Amino acid sequence: MLIRTATPSDAPLLTELAAKTMREAFGPPHNPAPLVEEYIDTSITQPILEAELADPKSVFFVLELADKTPIGYAKLRRTKPLRQLSPAFRKAGKAIEIQRIYLLQNQVGQGQGRLLMEHCLAWAREAGYEAVWLGVWERNERAIAFYQKLGFERIGFHYFQFGAERQRDFWLQKQL
């Protein structure tokens, strides 16, 4: 396994990987396929990924097998915690958002997600962050259980526009 920091030249790879993991994680039976495709068409395009990779507030990591086959990725974004988060959390210290963390479905449950998350947490600590936060769809019980196992706590919620549908995400945080 190798986890590396993505570069702008990874935009095509990340576009493909992000679309595939989105379909696997949120497609049928969780959501209708047209809804997922609408989200992908408006939020996961190569120009969007190129812009995100060029954004100095973002950092992407790619998880690869020994043969360099990409199997997952994560995106961290330096931003102030949102108003919806509790005042105690917003005052808890310097925090960073884990905006995305996805694995190919055939890799889930084998420890790679934990490896990728631990890499993100170590990077955040080394960069001087005191906490991380993320959003997770309220119906994604497996992901919620995974995050709770790693010490994340629920601190609020927000609504997320997924294509034409408004869905609720829980905010979770972890002190580092």
TrEMBL record:
<protein>
    <submittedName>
        <fullName>GNAT family N-acetyltransferase</fullName>
    </submittedName>
</protein>
<keyword id="KW-0012">Acyltransferase</keyword>
<keyword id="KW-0808">Transferase</keyword>
<feature type="domain" description="N-acetyltransferase">
    <location>
        <begin position="1"/>
        <end position="176"/>
    </location>
</feature>
<dbReference type="Pfam" id="PF00583">
    <property type="entry name" value="Acetyltransf_1"/>
</dbReference>
<dbReference type="InterPro" id="IPR050832">
    <property type="entry name" value="Bact_Acetyltransf"/>
</dbReference>
<dbReference type="GO" id="GO:0016747">
    <property type="term" value="F:acyltransferase activity, transferring groups other than amino-acyl groups"/>
</dbReference>
<dbReference type="InterPro" id="IPR016181">
    <property type="entry name" value="Acyl_CoA_acyltransferase"/>
</dbReference>
<dbReference type="InterPro" id="IPR000182">
    <property type="entry name" value="GNAT_dom"/>
</dbReference>
